[in-house]
Amino acid sequence: MNGWNRPEFKRQAKICMRRYYWTAVLACVIVLLLQFSGTAGTNNGAGSEDEPAARWSYSDGNTVFDADSSEIPFLDEYLDRFMYAQNGKGVFYGIINSGVGMLLIAIILIRLALSLLIINPIRVGLSSFFYRNRTVKTGIGELAFAFNRKDFWPVVKAMLRREISIILWSLLLVVPGIIKAYEYSMVEYILAENPSMSSKEVLDLSRQMTAGHKGDLFVLDLSFFGWFLLGQFTLGLSDIFYTNPYRYATSAEAYAFLKSRIRTEASQDAAF
What we know:
The protein is mainly alpha-helical.
């Protein structure tokens, strides 16, 4: 037995949540709204059925293309023109060099900056909030602790390095990316306690902590599937008022266990 006890983690999480329930709900809602703001505005849908999609046209000097047209004649011929028209400049070139293209690039850059400089530090603050509330009542202000001048850039760098690593592994296959995601799942909690630690040390420590427990962490997440399914039927209300705080509190209990285990192993190694 490796000491992993999922039911006990959940039981302890429920006990802790009773002490700071409404603050936990508020903390999760703040992070949810921030994450939503990072994806809002990039929906490619056309809007309501009564509202026509936006239209734009492009001309390569011979033919005018209408992006809202449902019928594009000679499609095969125009596919080549999309990338390569006269002088090697097609529709793609026209989009990038148009106001629409510049706007899209600006939106992508703003979303990236929002994620790196605001959302990620707030996520570390959320992990700190739930972990510290296990033993000491901590207020909503804990969400912003990573914005301390000394701690901010190390947190940003470590979170960025984690995301790049997961993305690169995901490019190989989906499964390696998932494995890496669980391997680095403790990064936010480690940063919550050690915000000035180097990004390499943070990732290495998370790798050590999750060694032999990535499958356990996956099953732990899977155990919330029923709650997330309930959220679909309650239009997300159960997620807001119960599932999200419950899941974060349980994750904090898992981190506490893994932290205790790694310390025990380190002390045993030192004894020899």
